[in-house]
C-alpha cells in the first residue's frame, strides 16, 4: 500500500517563475509607495497652505474689498441652492418620520425629530456638501484658470502674494458664510417640515413648533453650527490648493475641479464623524 | 568675434567706463523632467540696454527670463539682480526687488475680472500712496503712452490680442520699473502690430530709462529694438553681442537659426546690418 501523496509534492516553481512573482510584489509595493508618497505630499501642501493662510490672516496687508466680494460670491449666491436643499430635506424628513412613527402613534414627535436631525446633522452636512460642490469647484476653476493664463504669476511678479490676495479672502468668506447659510438652512428645513405637518399630517403649526421648542437645547444648535467653521475651512483650502496647483491647460482645470468636489465631500463627511464625537464629548 | 563656446567666459567682465551690470547669471542650471533646460548659463545684462534673447522653441528662453524676478528658481548657480542674489530669497523677501521689476507676459495676463483702468491701476494701488485722482491721471498717461487713450472702461475680453498686450505693457510700466522683462511680446500678432510693439519697447525704454530683456522669435523686431542679442541653444548662450558682431561671427547654429526664420544670413545679414 502506497503512502498518500503529499499535496506539496509536484513540480517545483522555476527560478524564473519565483523571480517574476517577486517582481510583481515589488511592483505592487512600489505603486503603493508612490500613491502613499503623493498623498503625503498633498497633505503636506495643504498643511503648508493652511499655515500660510492663518499667518496672512493675522498680518498686513489686508484686502477688505476682496473679502467682501467673496462674501457675496460664497454667501449670497449660495443662498438659493442651500435653501432649496434644506426646505425639501425638511419636507422629506417629515414625511418619512411620520410614516415610521405612525405605527406607534408618535406623529406628534415629527417636529422634534425633524428639528433635531436638521440642526445637529443634516443642516450642517448638506449645506457643506452643497457649498463644497458650488463654491469649492468654483474656487478651483477660477484659480486654475488664473494659473493657466499666468495671472497668478503676474500677481507674484508685482510683489503681491497670491495667498494674501486670492486664498485669504476665499477662506475667510467660506469660513464665515457657511455658518450663516447653515443657520438659514436649518430654519428653512424646519419650515419645510411644518408645511408637511400642516398639509399632510393634519397637525397644527402650534403643535409642531411647540414640540420643537420644548425639546430643543441651545447645545443642539451650537454643535451643528460649530462644525461648519471647520467644514468651511476645509472646503476653501482644498479648492484653493487644487486651483493653485493646476499645471497645463484647460483639461487640467477640469480635472482639478472634479478632484475638489470629491475631496471636499469626503473631507466634510469624514471630519463630521470626528467633530460629532468631539462635540458630544465636550 | 563674440562666439564663445566656453560658458565660463561667455560674458567677459565689462571694462572700466562701461555701464554697470544690473542682472547677472552665474553658471545657472535648471532641469525639468530629467532634461537640462539651462545647463550652466552665464549672462550679464547692462543697465539701460535692450537685450533680445533668441533661440529655438523649448530652449529655455522664458525660463531664463523667469529666473530674473524669482518666478523660477535655479537648481544650481546664482542669479544676481541689483547686486543681490535672488536664489534663496522667500516670496516676502523678493518683494522689494520685484517692485523694481516688471514683466510683460506672453498672453498679457490681464486680470479678467477687472477693467482696463483697474488693471493698470492695480500696482499703483498696491505699492504707492497716490490719491485716487493721481492714480486716474497716471493710468490715463500710461494708456496714452501705449497708444490706447480712452480705453479705461473696457474689459479685457473686449480687447484684441495686440490691445491686451499694450494694456499689459501699460500696467507693467505703471510703477516706472528699472527692469522690464518681455516674454514674447509679438507672438500671435500681425506684422504691423508687431512693429508698433517694437517701437513701443524702444520708446518706453528711453522714456522710463529702463533696462529691457526681450524674449522673442521675431528677428525683425529684435533687429529694430536690440542693443545686443543673446542666442540660447542647448542650455547655454552660444552667442552674445550686437547684430553687427553676429554677422561677422558666422556662428553656424546662429546662422542656421536666422536662415530657418527666413532672415538673410551670411553676406545678406551684413547688408541688413549696414542698412540699420
Key attributes of the depicted protein:
heterodimer, A: 282 residues, mainly alpha, 2 domains, 9 helices, B: 276 residues, alpha/beta, six-stranded mixed β-sheet, four-stranded antiparallel β-sheet, disordered N terminus
Describe the structure.
The complex is a heterodimer of chains A (282) and B (276). In chain A, 83% of the residues lie in helices and 0% in strands. Chain A contains 9 helices and no strands. Chain B has 276 residues and is α/β, with parallel strands linked by helices. In chain B, strands 6-7-8-3-9-10 form a 6-stranded mixed beta sheet, with helices on both faces. In chain B, strands 2-1-4-5 form a 4-stranded antiparallel beta sheet, with helices on one face. In chain B, a hairpin with a 2-residue loop joins strand 9 and strand 10. The model of chain B is unreliable at 1-14 and 270-276 (pLDDT under 50). Chain A binds chain B through residues 61, 145, 149-151, 153-154, 156-161, and chain B through 66, 69, 71, 91-92, 94-96, 98-99, 101-103, 105-107, 109-112, 122-123, 126-127.
